[in-house]
Design goal:
The chain is α+β, with helices and mostly antiparallel strands. The chain has three domains: 2-111 and 325-348, Rossmann fold, CATH 3.40.50.20; 117-122 and 198-321, ATP-grasp fold, B domain (D-amino Acid Aminotransferase, Chain A, domain 1, 2-Layer Sandwich); 139-195, Dna Ligase, domain 1, CATH 3.30.1490. Helix content is 31%, strand content 27%. It is built from eleven helices and 16 strands. Strands 9, 10, 11, 12, 13, 14 and 15 form a seven-stranded mixed β-sheet that branches. A five-stranded mixed β-sheet has the order 4-1-2-3-16. Strands 5-8-6-7 form a four-stranded antiparallel β-sheet, with helices on one face. Helix 1 (18-26) links the parallel strand 1 (2-6) and strand 2 (33-39). Helix 1 (18-26) packs across helix 9 (295-303). The two termini are 20 Å apart.
Length: 349
Amino acid sequence: MINVAVTGLNAADSPAPGVPVIRCLREHPNWNGRVIALAYDALESGVLDRSVVDSVYLIPYPKAGKTALLERLVAIHQREQIDVIIPNLDAELLNFIALEPELSKLGIRLFVPNEEQFKARIKANLPRFSEQNGIRTPQTSLVTNPSKLNISERDLPIVVKGLFYEAHVAHTVQEAFNLVHKIAATWGYPVLLQKFIDGEEYNAAAVGDGTGRMVGIACMKKLVFTEKRKGWACVSIENGSLFEFSKKIVQALKWRGAIEIEAIYSKSEDTFHIIELNPRFPAWIYLAKASGANLPYTYLQLALGEPISEIQRSRAGVVFSNYTTNLVTDLSSIGSLFTSGEVHYEKAV
């Protein structure tokens, strides 16, 4: 029996990866374990689903810092004897990375990049990383002071992005200015301005072993988009160029853990451009499992020190779509989370 703790349980209009990661683990034929949900809010929708999680614990928000997180994880570990933690949110990763040595002493395993790897792929550093490794990425500039914002008609259309989340295409100068202020008000500065690339969007989810070797990959093309350009429905594909592109990125970073590669294929240039490199599993990761590459379980094996001999690759032609469902739970379960910061569904059934 293995105890795996998972974050990122929100499953709203822009769902986090936690629930599909758990589904991938539970549906593997060799799975024999319990799932401990680590939530930031008592009303994260995934924590209400007792078919997905066994126990739920609230943890401090990332801005509280690594010390507060460690204290909470130690307390949870004393109750649950956690074997592996799978973090699934960008904003929490640096805290978990910093705590890996301490958690390892407690017997809690992580499989995450180091701080240098993590920072090499952040949006502000992508141009430097791309130039150093012969990989294309759109020209990007940082806005740190709104009074120095300079956008002209010749820059349009332009993509306006937050440092961690949110991206929109602006078609007028005024729209670009409004988006910069909107994103800054939500996520803070810097805000990124990125050259718009006219092409087709593709995504790949991959797992690297930390030595430069890619041990698993699933590729997809978006079919239906949300308002925030997230893929609501997508189809698995086989694309040799995208495979090699992703492999080159994992190798250059010597990436350790899960990564999502967002790319645009420019027909005029006949090449892929990196749009974003996300340091965790994507929300569509269940498509990987459904198309033959259970990457979360591969991640778990690596965290446990098990060897991975062959690279996992998804097959083409599997369609994935999000959908809305309804969950119900006892008010006492929500009350327990609010008052004690934990709930245990095995005991509640």
